[in-house]
Structure formats: structure tokens, C-alpha cells
Design a protein that fits this description.
With 450 residues, the protein is an all-alpha fold. The chain has one domain. α7 runs antiparallel to α8 and α8 packs across α22. The N and C termini lie far apart (56 Å). It comes from Halomonas salipaludis. This is TRAP transporter large permease protein.
Length: 450
């Protein structure tokens, strides 16, 4: 057996070592780096080039969007912007069938256009939405599953950190990717609402006839408004949340009007969040700024460390021609493009259960992108399809990071949260199939504006 492994190409052995390190629970970034260094050593390359490869991998202008989008989302969560948006949407759609379930879905979709990070979205908006859904008759585990899934769509709905990374790897227009993701992301949110009757066990679990005494309303600052007419309440909450609601307009409007690039938009979003917190809401303080900078730096460091070591991994994949070998195997499976697409999607779903989205992209895209070009698929459509697929990985054990954040927020076990997210996993698979079957859904806005 060892002789058989020794006869394998260095790149293939690198992949095997990577998965072995993963089984030993070595952090993903270090598993990437160690397996790549192992392969480079066997290929006879000096390790002195590793530093140059790492520097080349992370010194890309487009990657600057990652830390700044993370910082913008963190600031908007800590400065009360999320809370004000929940107030507004609670009044706007809270009276519809489904109550806080509809509110939670809408807020998650909207927050995805602000944060761009799934775990950050769960932490920022999860506690208030889950509490409100419980009071509105939903099971806690189901509410946690809804927030996990809605937050997972943060990597689909622009501005998406995942789409930024895909655009860098695939050398595809990030602006077009953002535009293409709007309708599929909205579709995924709408079909999430199909499951709302499954999670609502009672309209008034506490026996109350209304939510006038709801602790979540009090926490959201709605208690002074609950006696007002609907239009008055809607206006008051809209006025309070206006500057937060303008965030996606500023970001996406600036990108598509040509005022700034997607990378520059990340910096604009950060400055905008600081201005809103300091001037409009007056919630910005030195301690809050320090805390937000620390949280954003920690989150950015995790992502960028993976990006840095993935550059080594990707270099070995290229030099050892794993791209040609494995893409050739994929193309040789069948002459039917749908069979090949199905195989790719199944691989991504399986790998997404064990690795985060960034790692999956850096490992798989060098192999899959040549197939995409060979089959004549639109790389913009494939990028959106990839993001939807990887968003499902954020809610699938054992490495579904959103599940861990939600478990921490709700004090439930991972198993309970995963069970609550199960209906949403099935719904997301249906959405994935729709987006795969109808590429025009993703390309409609792109074609209309070009």
C-alpha cells in the first residue's frame, strides 16, 4: 500500500496528506500549507520560494475587499444598525402570515447585502430574530435553522466575500457576479418561506392575544409605538432605520453607476458605517470601535490565512498538472453536460460538509474552471451556482460554521440546531436545482444592463 502511495504524483499525495491532516483536526489553513510544503519537498523545489508564492497569493488588489466588507458588517452590527432594521421590517411585514418567520427571512436577506459574511450575520441579527420567532410561536431550533440558512445566503447576495474571491480566482468581473446573484439570492429567500408552517407550533405560545407585552418588542424599542396606527408606526421605524436601509443602495448603486469598483465599495461601506454611527445614530464610541476592529481583524485573519496557504496549494496543483489530470477525468465521465454538472455539484456539496467555502474554492476551482470553459458554460452563472452550493455547506455538519454560531446564541446543541435547519437544507437543494436548470435566471440582469 505504501509503495502504491509512493508511486502517486506529488500533487495527488498532497491532496491525500491534506485530507489526512483534516481528519487529525489540524486547522484548515495549516493543513493546506503543510501538505503543499510536503509536495514541494518531494518535487525537489526549494522551500525558499514558499514565501514569494504566499506574498504573490495575497497581494492582489481585489482581496482588499474582504477585510473591509467584514469590518463594515461588524460595525453595522455593533452600532445598532441591525437593530433598527429589524424594527422596521417587524412593522412592515410582521403582520403577514408567518409573522416573525417572514421578518427573519427578509432581515436575513437584507443583512446579506450589508454584511457579506454568514457567521457575522448570525451573530449580529440572530439573537433578536430567534427571540422574536419564539414569542411568535416558532420552535427555537427551527428559528435557529432559519437564521443559519438566511445568513448563509450572505455569501450569495451581493456584496459577497465569496463572489469577490471567485472573481479573483476565475478572473471574472466581480460587478457582473454581484449583479447575477441578486435574483437567485432573492429566489432562495422566497422559497425559504415555504417551510414556515413546519416550524410554527402556536401563534400565541404564552397565551397572549397580541404581542403588546412581547419582550422582543421591548428590546427592539417598539413598545412606545405599538398603540400607534400602522402607517404611523411604519413611518417612525422607517425614519429611524433610513440610514441603515440606504447601505445596499450606496454600495450597489455606486458600483453599477461606475462611481467606484467593488473593491473600493468595501472601503466606502466601512466609511459609511462609521459616519452613520457617529453622525446619524450617535452610537459610535471608542470602546465599540475597538471591539469592532478586533472582531473584524480576527475574522479577516482567518480568511486571509487560508488564502495565503491556499496559494501554495494551488501552485502545486498547477505545476503537477493536477488540473489537466482531474479535469480530463471529469470530462471523460460522460458526453452529457448535465451529468458532468451533477457530478461537480455533488462533489462540492460533499466537500462543503467538511471545509469552509474559501478553502473549497481554492482547491476545486483550478480543476473545475477548465471544465466550465470546455463545456461552454458561462463563468458568471457558474460562480453564482457555486455560491449557492457552498452556502448549503454553512448549514451542514460537521463543519457548518453557522450552526456553531447559532448554537452558541441559543444555548442549544449542534444536533438540535442542525435538525432545525434540515427543512431549509432540502429547500436550498431545490433552489440549487432551479438555478442550475435555468441559467437565464442568473444572467437576466447581467444581459439587461450590458
Amino acid at each position: 500500500m505504501f509503495e502504491l502511495i509512493a508511486d502517486l504524483p506529488a500533487g495527488t499525495r498532497m491532496v491525500l496528506v491534506f485530507f489526512l491532516l483534516m481528519l487529525l483536526r489540524v486547522p484548515i489553513a495549516f493543513a493546506l500549507g503543510l501538505s503543499a510544503v510536503y509536495a514541494m519537498w518531494h518535487m525537489g523545489f526549494g522551500l525558499d520560494i514558499a514565501g514569494d508564492l504566499i506574498a504573490t497569493g495575497i497581494t492582489k488588489f481585489s482581496l482588499l475587499a474582504i477585510p473591509f466588507f467584514i469590518l463594515a458588517g461588524t460595525l453595522m452590527g455593533s452600532l445598532g444598525i441591525a437593530e433598527r432594521m429589524i424594527r422596521f421590517f417587524r412593522v412592515l411585514v410582521g403582520g403577514l402570515p408567518g409573522g416573525m418567520g417572514v421578518v427573519g427571512t427578509v432581515v436575513c436577506l437584507f443583512w446579506g447585502a450589508v454584511s457579506g459574511s454568514g457567521p457575522a450575520s448570525v451573530a449580529a441579527i440572530g439573537p433578536m430574530i430567534i427571540k422574536g420567532m419564539e414569542e411568535d410561536g416558532y420552535r427555537r431550533a427551527y428559528a435557529a435553522g432559519l437564521v443559519c440558512t438566511g445568513a448563509a445566503l450572505s455569501i450569495v447576495i451581493p456584496p459577497s466575500i465569496g463572489l469577490v474571491i471567485y472573481g479573483v480566482i476565475a478572473e471574472t468581473s466581480i460587478s457582473k457576479l454581484f449583479l447575477a446573484a441578486i435574483l437567485p439570492g432573492t429566489l432562495m429567500g422566497l422559497i425559504m418561506m415555504v417551510t414556515l408552517p413546519l416550524g410554527r407550533v402556536s401563534r400565541h405560545p404564552t397565551g397572549a392575544s397580541s404581542l403588546k407585552d412581547s419582550p422582543s418588542l421591548r428590546a427592539m424599542g417598539l413598545m412606545p409605538y405599538h398603540e400607534f396606527p400602522y402607517r404611523r408606526r411604519l413611518w417612525l421605524t422607517f425614519r429611524e432605520s433610513f440610514w441603515g436601509l440606504m447601505t445596499p443602495v450606496v454600495i450597489l448603486g455606486g458600483i453599477y453607476s461606475g462611481v467606484f469598483t467593488p473593491t473600493e465599495a468595501a472601503l466606502v461601506a466601512t466609511v459609511y458605517a462609521l459616519c452613520v454611527g457617529a453622525l446619524a445614530y450617535r452610537t459610535l464610541s471608542v470602546p465599540k470601535l475597538y471591539e469592532a476592529l478586533g472582531d473584524a481583524a480576527a475574522s479577516s485573519a482567518v480568511v486571509m490565512l487560508v488564502v495565503a496557504y491556499a496559494s501554495l496549494f494551488g501552485w502545486v496543483v498547477t505545476v503537477d498538472d493536477l488540473v489537466g489530470t482531474y479535469s480530463g477525468l471529469l470530462l471523460g465521465l460522460s458526453d452529457n453536460e448535465w451529468v458532468i454538472l451533477l457530478v461537480i455539484m455533488l462533489i462540492l456539496l460533499l466537500v462543503g460538509m467538511f471545509m469552509d467555502a474559501v478553502t473549497v474554492m481554492f482547491i476545486s476551482l483550478p480543476i473545475f474552471l477548465p471544465v466550465v470553459h470546455q463545456m461552454g458554460w458561462d463563468p458568471v452563472w457558474f460562480g453564482v451556482l457555486l455560491m449557492v452550493n457552498l452556502s448549503i455547506g454553512l448549514i451542514t455538519p460537521p463543519v457548518g460554521i453557522n450552526l456553531y454560531v447559532a448554537a452558541n446564541v441559543t444555548q442549544l446543541s449542534i444536533e438540535q440546531v442542525a435538525k432545525g435547519a434540515l427543512p431549509f437544507m432540502l429547500i436550498c437543494l431545490i433552489g440549487l436545482a432551479i438555478i442550475a436548470a435555468f441559467p437565464a435566471l442568473s444572467l437576466m440582469l447581467v444581459n439587461a444592463l450590458n
